[in-house]
Target: non-specific serine/threonine protein kinase
Amino acid sequence: MCTRLLLCGHAYYIQSNSLNKEDAHEAINSSSPLSIGQTLSSPDTGNLVLIDDVSRTTIWESFENLGNTMLPQSTLMYDLSHGKKRELTSWKSYSDPSLGNFSLEITPQFDESYLSCQAKSSTKTQGRDTDIFYRMTNVKTPDLHQFASFLDADMCYQGCLGNCSCTAFAYISGIGCLVWNGKLVDTVQFMSNGETISIRLASSELAGSHRTKIIVATTACLSIFAILVFTAFMFWRYRAKQKEPTHVGINTLQNAWKNDFEPQDISGVNFFEMHTIRTATDNFSSSNKLGQGGFGPVYKGKLLDGKEIAAKRLSSSSDQGTGEFLNEIRLISKLQHRNLVRLLGYCIEGEEKLLIYEFMVNKSLDIFLFDSTLKLEIDWAKRFEIIQGIARGLLYLHRDSRLRVIHRDLKVSNILLDEKMNPKISDFGLARMFQGTQYQDNTRRVVGTLGYMSPEYAWAGLFSEKSDIYSLGVLMLEIISGKKISRFSFGDGSKGLLAYAWESWFETGGADLLDQDLTDSCNIYEVARCVQIGLLCVQHEASDRPNTLQVLSMITSTTELPTPKQPIFAAQTLNDVFTSESESKHIFSVNDLTQSVIQGR
Model:
């Protein structure tokens, strides 16, 4: 007599006869009868276990001998030392459990340079045989990078060293730790102004090995290519100048530059002579330097009439060329709003290009927001006014100005503060204008600041009003918490600002996200409402985000707010970047992007 047991899609039969371990395996897999002397049991996990009644040892279990079904606690494996593996096999048909045409298994595809990496990266064996990193300077960072949560360059180095999947890392000031876990795609070395990247090598590879020779040869080829491109460009410029009439001198060429900026073309903007700006800034003295902008340093100056100015000096090697320079002048000259920085004029002399702005006494918002002492000067009431001012300035750009403008680089350091701490949006070098009914555009050159870029812009180059709204949402959460999006970590370091803001709103309504030093000055209702609005602005899908008019209405009214979805980045963990490839969760990917550059500012 036998009993039929159906488990995990297989039928098993139990019968009173003697059976050894080998026969048990064959009997179970072929649905044959089992025999006396053994007990067949099924725990809550679904693992079918055959136990010897005398010794109480396990003879056979279904988790070690998978069929066509995998339960939550069963696993695939490959035992390299004993050559054993665990695999799933398909049935021939729904009613025929014999071996089918498909199987799923883990294969031992590894090489000696990797299980070697693991040994050398362990804390017990670090020394002269440890993997090393070859530093390349002036490099355009490769595509397909991942953003890690390490707070300094040494932690970034140690994190990459301890993960054998990590092929390179770069620690960029103002951005953080970028790592690569595969091939380095679309890497170019420039003559200057690139980033520094550290490429993983075995210690023996710098001693004349084949791979070292390849790397050296590749680097040399890239350098030669860059030199050839630079030489060709200089030759082209020389030939272009040669075609000009011979009587054209330097003064005439400078006049030609100025003719591109006639007052009738740019009304309300003055042309400043270079000697005027040099005098005003004490020849660009370091003591007058206010900071480093995206395309060059900014200096404080004082004109002869006593008026204070801020001069942004664009270096000749800056990424912002004549096109971006013209764009910023013509764009800002047409924008007049109390929450936008005012452009007073410009200056051009040879290769020198400068933009002259009104001087903001209190500099930028980040100086106050992230300073342990200065942050107390902007209590919650002032921060709420700043949020409203930024939203009004953005509404003017998107809806109320003569041009529809997408800023593309809205961040806390681009919000300047006047003597009354009123916010003014600045730095329009990356801004784009829309024509007519156009509401969206795309670019193959993704330029902006990591953390503030919306998913559709970072991954596919699509930008619109909704991509600025995403940046505004990040800004709001930074202003509320007093924490940087790129530096924030909570608890075990795996939660970023978006994740923490989501949990705060979901669990307590969001009021506890406010900087704890400001709790005495806050309006709990306003704080919680602003946290919810910020989360609505950083929704993963652009269609789920409110437009600018709706955002301002939400901030300034008491109407009921929609319920936000959990931001997709909030569901990821920063430390997952350094887990194995089979378990990793990428928090940032540009897999859908080709020939693009993400430049931190």
Notes: The chain has four domains: 2-104, 121-212, 254-359, 363-601.
